[in-house]
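Researcher: Sequence of Conjugative coupling factor TraD follows. Predict its structure.
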Amino acid sequence: MAQPHAVEVLLRPAVELYTVAVCAVAALLCLVAPWSLALNPLLGLGSALAFLLFGIIRLREAWFILRYRRNVRRLPKYVMTSRAVPVSQQRLFIGRGFRWDQRHTHRLMQTYRPEFRRYVEPTAAYRIARRLEERLEFAPFPLSKLARLTTWDSPFNPARPLPPVGGMPRLHGIEPHEVDVTLPLGERVGHSLVLGTTRVGKTRLAELFITQDIRRRNAAGEHEVVIVFDPKGDADLLKRVYVEAKRAGREGEFYVFHLGWPDISARYNAVGRFGRISEVATRIAGQLSGEGNSAAFREFAWRFVNIIARALVELGQRPDYLLIQRHVVNIDALFIEYAQHYFASNEPKAWEVIVQIEARLNDKNTPRNMIGREKRVIALEQYLSQVRVYDPVLDGLRSAVRYDRTYFDKIVASLLPLLEKLTTGKISQLLAPDYADLADPRPIFDWMQIIRKKAVVYVGLDALSDAEVSAAVGNSMFSDLVSVAGHIYKFGIDDGLPGTASGVKVPINVHADEFNELMGDEFIPMVNKGGGAGLQVTAYTQTLSDIEARIGNRAKAGQVVGNFNNLFMLRVRETATAELLTKQLPKVEVYTTSLMSGATDSSDIHGKTDFTSNTQDRITTTSVPLLEPAHVVGLPKGQCFALIEGGNLWKIRMPLPAPDPDEVMPRDLQQLAGYMRQHYVEAGDWWDSKALPGLQDAPLPDDLLDGFRHMATAETTAERRNRE
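Model: Prediction complete. C-alpha cells:
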C-alpha cells in the first residue's frame, strides 16, 4: 500500500477499482488495437505492460481496502491441528496477531463514528436472514429448508451467520497483516498470568502452551518437566496432556493424580519428603487461617504437628496425614511409644521405676491437669519430673500431654477439620500411601522424583465435587513444590547422586488452571523466588477479585500479581481486572477531522455581495488511552491482549482446534474422559448426583483399567486365581 496520509481512512469505497478498470481497458486496447491510440504494435505492447503494472499496484491497494472492510465485520477462520503447532527451542508460539500501536487506536476510534457505521455493522441481508431463521424454526418441511439454506456456512452465502465467538471482530480486523506471535523462552522464568472469564479460551491457550512444553527438547535432546494442575478435572485437557505425552514418546513418564478416581490414580505423600523436619508442620498448619484470633491457634497447631513429626522421624516412620491425625487425636500413644524407644537405648532400667509409679496411682494422687490420661502417661510424666532427661523430642511430647485434655482439644480444634478433609475415604490411600504394600500397582511419586525423571504430571483435584478437599490438597502440593524448589535452588536437582554436577537446573513448567482455588501464602514465594530454581509458572484465573478473595488480603493479592511479568488478558467482565492491563499503557495522539462551514452577511447594502460563505476541513489531535477497559470486555472468544517482553502490547488470536486423525486414544482413557464429562456435577447441585451411579465410591468397570500404565487398579485375589 502507498504511504498513508496524515489522516488514514480505510473505511471507504474502494475507489482504486475504477483505476484498475481503466488500466485493464487501456491495456486491452494497446494489445488488440494499438492503431486506435496511434501506436505501432511494439509501442502498444510496452504501453500495455505499463498499464498492467499500474493496474496491479492499484489492485493491491483496492484489495487492502476490501480485506480491511471484510475483517472488520468477519475474521477469516484460523484453525490448526495439535500436530501442526510449531515447537521451538527458543520461543513459545502463542498465535497470530500484531503489535498494537497508535495506528490501531486511531483505526478503532474511527469504527465508532456514525459515518462509518455501514461498514462495521451487519448488513441488511444478514439481519433479514437471522429474523427469518427465528420465525421458521418450527415451520413445516419446505420452509425449514429455507432456514437451513441461510445458515449455510460458506463464502457463497452472502448472509451466512457469524462464528459463535461473540465480541467485536473489529478489535482484530483493524490490522490485515498478521504475523506469528511468540514469546522468548527466557521470558517465561518471569511467570505468566492468564486472565479471562468462563468459556472464553483459557483452557485452549493452556493446551497450546502445554503441547509445546511436552514436545520441546533442549539442545541435548532432553525433555522438560510439565506439571498441570486442573481443579475442575477437564476431560479434554486430560486427553490433550496424554495424547501429547504419547506422541512425544513420554507415555512411560506420564502420571495421573486424580481425587475423583482414586482407584486408578497415582499416589502422593505431600509431607513425606522434606529438607527440614519443620517443613511438615509448615505445610499442614500453613493452610489454617492466620487472621485475627486464629493466628494464635495456628501457631499452637504448628507446634504440635512439629512435635509429632519429629517423634515419627526419630521412630523411623515417614510422616503422612493419617499418622499425624492419629497422634493429634491421641498423642498419649505416641508419647508412650517414643518413651519406650528412648529408654530402651538410653535407660533400660527406667521402666521398672515407671511401672512402680503406675501401680501407686489412683484418683486421689492424680494431678488435676492429667485427669483423663492413661496411667502410664501419668507415670511417665512423674518419672521425667524426677529425673533429668535432656531429649528435645521427649520434652516436646511431655509438654503436650501436660496440657489439660479439654484445653488441648480446643487448641487443636482448627487442625482436626483440615486433617479430616485429607484422610476421609479412599483419598487417604492417595495422600497417605502404604510404601510396604507391593501388591498395589499404583505408583507413588514426589516432586523431586518427577523433576529428576523429567516427567509429565496431570493433577485433577475434582473441585466441582468437593471444593474443600480440592483446595486443601492443591495447597499442600504447592507448599511441597515450593520446598523442592528451594532445595533445587541451593543444590540442584541431582544433589546426593553420585557423579553429578551440582547446581544443574531444568525448566519446570507449572500450569495452574483456576489457581485461585489452590493458592495460599506459599504461592507468593513460588512466583517470587521460584524462577531461580527453574520454575516457570503459568497461572489461569477469571478475575483479580478471585485472587484477593482467596488470600483475604488486597496487599498480598497485589504482591502475587506483581510477580507475573507476562500478562495475557482474554475477555473479562470485571472492569478492575481489565484496568490491570489498560492502566499500564500510555496515552497516544489520534487524529480527528471536523467539517466547519459558515456564512456571513455583508454590511454593505449597496454592494454586489450579499453574503460570504466558508467551508473548512480541520484536522485536530486528541489524547486518548492506547486501550480502554471496554475493549477488553468486548474481546471475542479465543482472542486476547498480551503484555509481554517488557511491556509490549500485542493483539493475538489463538488457533481453533482442528480434529487430528492420528489422535487415537486408548479405550480406557476414552471411557475415563467420558465418565468425567458425564459425572461431574457442581457442588451446588449435589442432589442431582444421587441419580448417578457413584461419583467416588463405586469402582470403575474392569475394561476401563486394561492397558493404561500407571492407572490400573489392583486386581482382587479371586480374579487372579480364576485367570491362573
